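Chapter summary example.
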Amino acid sequence: MTAPAKPVRVAIIGVGGIADAAHLPAIEAQMGAATTVAAVDLDLDRAQAFAARWNIPAAYDSVPRMLQETQPDLVVVCTPPAAHQEAITAALDAGASVWCEKPPALSLAEYDAISAHEKPQGPFVSYVFQHRFGSGAQALRAHVASGALGRPLVGICHTLWYRDAAYYEVPWRGRWATEGGGPTMGHGIHQMDLMLWLLGDWAEVRSVTGTLDREVETEDVSMAMVRFANGALVSVVNSVLSPREVSYLRFDFSDATVELSHLYGYGNANWTWTPAPHRADATPADLGAPAHDEASSHTVQLRELLRSMRAGERPRAGGSDGRRALELATAIYQSAATGRPVTPDMLSPDSPYYHAMSGPVHGTGTANEEPLHV
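The structure predicted for these 374 residues follows.
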């Protein structure tokens, strides 16, 4: 009889709300396949309180010391965005795999610098894009790939959330240097990742951004028209000014419309499958709506990540796959600032927006264009 695999030993860096609300419950839901061995926070008292609450055996205020003494298999990074690079690279250099909260990095340059610390056979870093992993998205992805719903034509990808002034009293929020951007980076990136995972590569972005009501450096709303390589046109809106909050995606194919309306996570009940008139007799099941219902969650993505680790494979939502949402965010900021359409070839190290989402405003380079920012 084959001995059961040893649990993956997990360390948590950053013990704020997302670690409590999502990551520790996800680890505990893995049926013994993972166990948390250490918690790290700049505030040692907070790390110790977190460790006591979750029965974690060790707490630290030093990442290098934790890595040396604990030698985890997997490090989960839940820090504010500006601290992602240092934590990820330290863990990779110590031989640990990494799962990091969004946004992956503050810029494409930072993302690529992090990726340089991966080795061909691992360890790898992947990112929290949990909305890909629910049964509704999995089913739709298969139908897009097979062409079962016809050609993708029109789409909507709207993240309309509400964050009040008190939300931005946290010092790192709403600042280019510490958050990397506004709702395009910190909120809508989940829906944009799901859209890209479903529809594939984009070909052109035209966008505007605005700072309309919050006292922040970054935008508090962005709007973009995205043309995909397959010809589909999609409206992308990211807002923190919307009292009736919704995360809404709609995909109009030649044979059906598929919609997803939720807030922070979905099950099958959040999806609507509507046939085109020439398929009026088709039911949601005929269109491919799944019977098996698995909600999007950190739990299901972590399960997939652990499977990849056991197989020695690069997990999904890492490498070039994890970079795609950051590329789209970069294009949105660059198009809004320059007033010009952006194509993928323009996101090169020659562009100041490759180095900072704010471009030459707070980043590097020289701007010759008037920004289209209202």
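To summarize the output: The first helix runs from residue 17 to 28.
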